[in-house]
Protein backbone atom coordinates (compact mmCIF):
# COMPACT_ATOMS: atom_id res chain seq x y z
CA UNK A 1 0.00 0.00 0.00
CA UNK A 2 2.93 2.34 0.75
CA UNK A 3 4.23 1.82 -2.80
CA UNK A 4 0.81 2.70 -4.23
CA UNK A 5 0.65 5.84 -2.10
CA UNK A 6 4.14 6.95 -3.21
CA UNK A 7 3.14 6.35 -6.82
CA UNK A 8 -0.11 8.32 -6.51
CA UNK A 9 1.51 11.31 -4.79
CA UNK A 10 3.57 12.00 -7.93
CA UNK A 11 0.43 12.33 -10.09
CA UNK A 12 -1.83 15.36 -10.66
CA UNK A 13 -4.98 15.28 -8.48
CA UNK A 14 -7.30 14.89 -11.47
CA UNK A 15 -5.44 11.80 -12.61
CA UNK A 16 -5.60 10.34 -9.08
CA UNK A 17 -9.40 10.67 -9.13
CA UNK A 18 -9.57 8.95 -12.53
CA UNK A 19 -7.37 6.09 -11.30
CA UNK A 20 -9.54 5.65 -8.19
CA UNK A 21 -12.71 5.49 -10.30
CA UNK A 22 -11.11 3.27 -12.95
CA UNK A 23 -9.51 0.68 -10.66
CA UNK A 24 -12.59 0.37 -8.44
CA UNK A 25 -14.85 0.26 -11.48
CA UNK A 26 -12.93 -2.54 -13.18
CA UNK A 27 -12.70 -4.46 -9.89
CA UNK A 28 -16.48 -4.17 -9.49
CA UNK A 29 -16.96 -5.67 -12.96
CA UNK A 30 -15.46 -8.92 -11.68
CA UNK A 31 -11.72 -8.47 -12.31
CA UNK A 32 -9.52 -8.88 -9.20
CA UNK A 33 -7.77 -5.50 -8.75
CA UNK A 34 -6.61 -3.70 -5.56
CA UNK A 35 -9.52 -1.27 -5.46
CA UNK A 36 -9.60 -0.95 -1.69
CA UNK A 37 -5.84 -0.36 -1.51
CA UNK A 38 -6.13 2.46 -4.06
CA UNK A 39 -9.01 4.02 -2.10
CA UNK A 40 -7.19 3.77 1.23
CA UNK A 41 -3.99 5.22 -0.26
CA UNK A 42 -5.90 8.10 -1.86
CA UNK A 43 -7.81 8.84 1.36
CA UNK A 44 -4.52 9.03 3.28
CA UNK A 45 -3.16 11.35 0.59
CA UNK A 46 -6.19 13.56 1.16
CA UNK A 47 -5.23 13.79 4.84
CA UNK A 48 -1.91 15.34 3.77
CA UNK A 49 -3.64 17.84 1.47
CA UNK A 50 -2.46 16.36 -1.83
CA UNK A 51 -6.00 15.61 -3.05
CA UNK A 52 -9.51 16.55 -1.90
CA UNK A 53 -11.41 13.93 0.14
CA UNK A 54 -14.82 14.67 -1.39
CA UNK A 55 -13.48 14.10 -4.90
CA UNK A 56 -11.75 10.86 -3.83
CA UNK A 57 -15.02 9.61 -2.31
CA UNK A 58 -17.07 10.73 -5.33
CA UNK A 59 -14.69 8.98 -7.75
CA UNK A 60 -14.77 5.79 -5.67
CA UNK A 61 -18.58 5.80 -5.44
CA UNK A 62 -18.92 6.46 -9.18
CA UNK A 63 -16.54 3.63 -10.04
CA UNK A 64 -18.27 1.23 -7.64
CA UNK A 65 -21.81 1.93 -8.86
CA UNK A 66 -21.01 1.99 -12.58
CA UNK A 67 -18.64 -0.98 -12.36
CA UNK A 68 -21.16 -3.10 -10.48
CA UNK A 69 -23.85 -2.21 -13.03
CA UNK A 70 -21.61 -3.22 -15.92
CA UNK A 71 -20.71 -6.42 -14.06
CA UNK A 72 -24.44 -7.09 -13.55
CA UNK A 73 -25.11 -6.70 -17.29
CA UNK A 74 -22.20 -8.97 -18.19
CA UNK A 75 -23.26 -11.58 -15.64
CA UNK A 76 -26.87 -11.52 -16.82
CA UNK A 77 -25.78 -12.01 -20.42
CA UNK A 78 -23.08 -14.60 -19.75
CA UNK A 79 -24.77 -16.49 -16.88
CA UNK A 80 -22.99 -19.24 -14.97
CA UNK A 81 -20.68 -20.19 -17.90
CA UNK A 82 -19.15 -16.73 -17.57
CA UNK A 83 -18.59 -17.23 -13.83
CA UNK A 84 -17.01 -20.60 -14.56
CA UNK A 85 -14.61 -19.00 -17.07
CA UNK A 86 -13.68 -16.30 -14.58
CA UNK A 87 -13.05 -19.01 -12.00
CA UNK A 88 -10.64 -20.80 -14.35
CA UNK A 89 -8.85 -17.57 -15.14
CA UNK A 90 -8.63 -16.34 -11.54
CA UNK A 91 -8.79 -19.56 -9.47
CA UNK A 92 -7.30 -17.95 -6.38
CA UNK A 93 -9.96 -15.24 -6.20
CA UNK A 94 -12.95 -16.60 -8.14
CA UNK A 95 -12.56 -20.38 -7.93
CA UNK A 96 -15.40 -22.83 -7.17
CA UNK A 97 -15.00 -22.47 -3.38
CA UNK A 98 -15.14 -18.66 -3.49
CA UNK A 99 -18.09 -18.73 -5.88
CA UNK A 100 -19.95 -21.17 -3.62
CA UNK A 101 -19.48 -18.87 -0.61
CA UNK A 102 -20.69 -15.87 -2.61
CA UNK A 103 -23.78 -17.78 -3.81
CA UNK A 104 -24.50 -18.84 -0.25
CA UNK A 105 -24.40 -15.18 0.83
CA UNK A 106 -26.93 -14.31 -1.88
CA UNK A 107 -29.14 -17.22 -0.87
CA UNK A 108 -29.12 -16.17 2.78
CA UNK A 109 -29.28 -12.38 2.48
CA UNK A 110 -30.82 -11.72 -0.92
CA UNK A 111 -30.20 -8.25 -2.33
CA UNK A 112 -28.61 -7.18 0.97
CA UNK A 113 -25.62 -9.27 -0.09
CA UNK A 114 -24.99 -6.57 -2.72
CA UNK A 115 -25.03 -3.82 -0.08
CA UNK A 116 -22.84 -5.59 2.48
CA UNK A 117 -20.74 -7.21 -0.24
CA UNK A 118 -19.19 -3.81 -0.93
CA UNK A 119 -17.38 -4.18 2.43
CA UNK A 120 -16.13 -7.75 1.77
CA UNK A 121 -13.23 -8.34 -0.63
CA UNK A 122 -14.70 -11.43 -2.34
CA UNK A 123 -18.25 -10.15 -2.75
CA UNK A 124 -17.00 -6.74 -3.86
CA UNK A 125 -15.61 -8.46 -6.96
CA UNK A 126 -18.44 -10.94 -7.52
CA UNK A 127 -21.57 -9.02 -6.47
CA UNK A 128 -22.36 -7.50 -9.87
CA UNK A 129 -21.71 -10.49 -12.15
CA UNK A 130 -23.26 -12.93 -9.67
CA UNK A 131 -26.42 -10.85 -9.22
CA UNK A 132 -26.80 -10.68 -12.99
CA UNK A 133 -26.20 -14.41 -13.46
CA UNK A 134 -28.79 -15.16 -10.76
CA UNK A 135 -31.29 -12.76 -12.43
CA UNK A 136 -31.74 -10.50 -9.40
CA UNK A 137 -34.21 -7.72 -10.45
CA UNK A 138 -32.10 -4.79 -11.63
CA UNK A 139 -34.04 -2.09 -9.75
CA UNK A 140 -33.50 -3.85 -6.44
CA UNK A 141 -29.88 -4.48 -7.37
CA UNK A 142 -29.33 -0.83 -8.30
CA UNK A 143 -30.74 0.48 -4.99
CA UNK A 144 -28.56 -1.87 -2.93
CA UNK A 145 -25.57 -1.25 -5.21
CA UNK A 146 -25.84 2.54 -5.03
CA UNK A 147 -26.39 2.54 -1.26
CA UNK A 148 -23.46 0.21 -0.63
CA UNK A 149 -21.17 2.11 -2.99
CA UNK A 150 -21.93 5.49 -1.44
CA UNK A 151 -21.62 4.31 2.18
CA UNK A 152 -18.41 2.38 1.44
CA UNK A 153 -16.75 5.13 -0.60
CA UNK A 154 -17.62 8.14 1.57
CA UNK A 155 -17.38 6.22 4.86
CA UNK A 156 -13.94 4.77 4.10
CA UNK A 157 -12.58 8.02 2.68
CA UNK A 158 -13.71 10.31 5.49
CA UNK A 159 -12.86 7.83 8.24
CA UNK A 160 -9.26 7.52 7.01
CA UNK A 161 -9.08 11.23 6.23
CA UNK A 162 -10.17 12.09 9.78
CA UNK A 163 -7.81 9.54 11.34
CA UNK A 164 -4.94 10.76 9.18
CA UNK A 165 -5.49 14.40 10.15
CA UNK A 166 -5.80 13.48 13.82
CA UNK A 167 -2.66 11.30 13.70
CA UNK A 168 -0.70 14.13 12.10
CA UNK A 169 -1.71 16.40 14.98
CA UNK A 170 -1.09 13.81 17.72
CA UNK A 171 2.33 12.76 16.45
CA UNK A 172 3.65 16.27 16.99
CA UNK A 173 3.47 15.90 20.78
CA UNK A 174 2.93 12.18 21.40
CA UNK A 175 5.32 10.40 23.76
CA UNK A 176 7.07 7.13 22.90
CA UNK A 177 5.00 5.38 25.56
CA UNK A 178 1.79 6.61 23.98
CA UNK A 179 2.99 5.51 20.56
CA UNK A 180 3.77 2.00 21.86
CA UNK A 181 0.33 1.78 23.50
CA UNK A 182 -1.35 2.89 20.29
CA UNK A 183 0.50 0.24 18.26
CA UNK A 184 -0.32 -2.47 20.80
CA UNK A 185 -3.96 -1.42 20.77
CA UNK A 186 -4.06 -1.67 16.97
CA UNK A 187 -2.42 -5.10 16.99
CA UNK A 188 -4.80 -6.36 19.68
CA UNK A 189 -7.91 -5.12 17.85
CA UNK A 190 -6.70 -6.64 14.57
CA UNK A 191 -6.07 -9.98 16.29
CA UNK A 192 -9.54 -9.93 17.82
CA UNK A 193 -11.24 -9.12 14.48
CA UNK A 194 -9.35 -11.89 12.68
CA UNK A 195 -10.22 -14.38 15.42
CA UNK A 196 -13.88 -13.36 15.16
CA UNK A 197 -13.81 -13.78 11.37
CA UNK A 198 -12.31 -17.29 11.72
CA UNK A 199 -15.07 -18.26 14.15
CA UNK A 200 -17.76 -17.02 11.76
CA UNK A 201 -16.14 -18.90 8.87
CA UNK A 202 -15.95 -22.05 10.99
CA UNK A 203 -19.65 -21.71 11.86
CA UNK A 204 -20.55 -21.32 8.19
CA UNK A 205 -18.53 -24.40 7.26
CA UNK A 206 -20.27 -26.42 9.98
CA UNK A 207 -23.70 -25.28 8.76
CA UNK A 208 -22.79 -26.40 5.22
CA UNK A 209 -21.61 -29.81 6.39
CA UNK A 210 -24.69 -30.67 8.48
CA UNK A 211 -27.11 -31.26 5.53
CA UNK A 212 -24.53 -33.49 3.87
CA UNK A 213 -24.16 -35.57 7.02
CA UNK A 214 -27.95 -35.80 7.37
CA UNK A 215 -28.27 -37.00 3.82
CA UNK A 216 -25.62 -39.66 4.44
CA UNK A 217 -27.47 -41.02 7.47
CA UNK A 218 -30.49 -41.68 5.33
TrEMBL record:
It comes from the Bacteria. It is found in: Cell membrane. Belongs to the DedA family. It comes from Micromonospora humida. The keyword Repeat does not apply. This is DedA family protein. Residues 41-161 form the VTT domain. Pfam families: VTT_dom (PF09335). Keywords: Cell membrane, Membrane, Transmembrane, Transmembrane helix. It is a multi-pass membrane protein. The keyword 4Fe-4S does not apply. The chain crosses the membrane at residues 7-26, 111-134, 141-162, 174-193.
Amino acid sequence: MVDVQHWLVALPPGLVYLIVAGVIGVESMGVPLPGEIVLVSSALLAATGVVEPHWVATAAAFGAIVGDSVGYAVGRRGGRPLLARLGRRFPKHLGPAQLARAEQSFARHGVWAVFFGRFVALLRILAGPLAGALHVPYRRFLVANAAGGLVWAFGTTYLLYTLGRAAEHWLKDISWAGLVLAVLGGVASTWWLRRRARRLESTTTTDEAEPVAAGTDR
